[in-house]
Amino acid sequence: MNENIIREFSDIQDELLAKVKLENTIQKEEIQSIAGVDLAYWDKDGKAYGTCCIVVVDYRTQEVIEKVYSYGEITVPYIPGFLAFRELPLIIEAVQKLTKLPDLYMFDGNGYLHYRHMGIATHASFFLNKPTIGVAKSYLKIKDTDFIMPENEEGCYTDIVIDNEVYGRTLRTTKNVKPIFVSCGNWIDLDTSTDIVLNCINKESRLPVPVRLADLETHKVRKQLSK
């Protein structure tokens, strides 16, 4: 069963990968709003459930513009490398609840930094039709390649290079705090992604504000729904 699913999912990812463009379709000065996207899961009565929370913030002030969430039973099995297929239905449902679409989506997860360059931020872009960025709290190790720790200064980074290709970036957003892992989703380049992430950092967290707020929201909603 899983072999057939993996073959089907792989074919879809290969088809989408051919359309990925790691170049800017929007200028930083044009960005007015950014949506942070995160998901959380829980089990109940032998079934898996999930919620997707989206928090849209003003890019300049970081003030919250809108919050929405979706939830439901998860029917796609967990298969490493193919998480997007499990998460997409809830993401699309949550996006449909937004009263105004943001200029860019920032995911709590990876984009191009993925075994097949198809992390959730990249995969979801084709359904959102907006530039996307992946921001991960922990490192996804690919082909036994470790990341190089950046210098201990805010804004320092090292590129994650695998087989002579840049997959993403290890970024120090706050001094004396663990780095995060930034990668392009789609329709944006890595330098611009890095700048946008750094512009969304405040003193409360190493994570950019949209992702941090979405993460907090998923914990809150999951707690409410799983009771």
Radius of gyration: 17 Å
The number of helices is: 5
Mean pLDDT: 96
- Give the CA-based shape: globular
Question: Any idea what the CATH architecture is?
Answer: 2-Layer Sandwich
Are there runs of 5+ residues with pLDDT below 50, and where? Answer: none
Largest pleated sheet: 8 strands, mixed
Q: Which fold name is given in CATH as the topology?
A: archaeoglobus fulgidus dsm 4304 fold
Tell me the domain tally. Answer: 1
Class by SSE composition: alpha+beta
Q: What is the fourth-level CATH superfamily?
A: archaeoglobus fulgidus dsm 4304 superfamily
Topology:
Layout: H1 2-17, E1 33-44, E2 47-58, E3 64-73, H2 83-95, E4 104-108, H3 120-128, E5 132-136, E6 157-162, E7 165-171, E8 180-186, H4 190-199, H5 209-225
Account of the protein in words:
With 227 residues, the chain is α+β, with helices and mostly antiparallel strands. It has one domain: archaeoglobus fulgidus dsm 4304 superfamily (archaeoglobus fulgidus dsm 4304 fold, 2-Layer Sandwich). Helices cover 29% and strands 28% of the residues. An eight-stranded mixed β-sheet has the order 3-2-1-4-5-8-7-6, sandwiched between helices. Helix 3 links the parallel strand 4 (104-108) and strand 5. Helix 2 (83-95) runs parallel beside helix 3. The longest helix is centred in the last third of the chain and has 17 residues, at 209-225. It is globular, with a radius of gyration of 17 Å. The two termini are 33 Å apart. The mean pLDDT is 96.
